[in-house]
Structure prediction request, 328 residues.
Amino acid sequence: MTEIVTVDIGGTHARFAIARIEDDGTIALGEETTLHTEDHASFQTAWEDYRERQGGSLPGGVAIAVAGPVKPDIIRFTNNPWIIRPPLIESKLGCTQSVIVNDFEAVAHAAARAPSNEFLHLAGPEQDLPERGTISVLGPGTGLGVAYFYRRPDDTYRVQATEGGHGDFAPVDAIEDAILARLRKRHTRVSDERVVSGPAIIDIYQALAAMEGRAVKELTDIEIWTAGTDGSDSLAAAAVDRFCLALGSVAGDIALIQGAKGVVIAGGLGYRIRETITASGFASRFAAKGRFAGLMETLPVKLITHPQPGLLGAAAAFAQRHLGESGA
Prediction:
């Protein structure tokens, strides 16, 4: 058994936990500690805070998932001022082994490891994810994360991080044409994550209001998501439904591009609106790929329910890198 510290760093929070990696590859997470990034000058001071909370000592290995591209010399975050220099991470933290991965790469590791009871069915045949081949993983959050993992015949797997959320958004009806036109006034190029992400619900809501000639309310994305899912605002509900349609289209596109045998939706936003997704046109949009509609209908689409896939996935990446698992 090996114990390590696993960390998931986003724009607002840094989550820490002790992970136990058993000899058979099983990973168990200890109690999570969440720190606000704005309360700490750097990742190192946050690490020192966590170390004190753990009694002054930590295991010698660390696995870190970061919300942004992993570069060899310096890692910068979009929504917090921290920087990480990978060549110095072990000496600065007092560790002997480390691994740093993109946060959605970590989520894909978690999806590859999660048992069948940690998935909810969204679309396609009600069966487990296939034991061989490519599984697409995507999740709307602050942006749109996209990755995939490939299951080999020897029961190992390989994860590939991508920037698939930055593909061009392709509208499929007049309403999405209007949403695209609105976004083009501010962006010369409109990517999928401009429509399929948490903050994008504001533009969807405002585009629908403009189509109906309504005065546009200045609501935050959280207010729209709340009003759209609790039924208190019919226009917000329409915006959430439209988001689900676009998510289905994009998920289907990504599955086709990656040659997927199944799809996993990840992230807290997807989990919060899971009932809305299943009741919406998500499944029909996912499968509506012309000559490939029959193929798309054979792909199981799941929602991962593990509470901390970033922490679990970072630990899994550490196991692959340092503990002899043949998944890299």
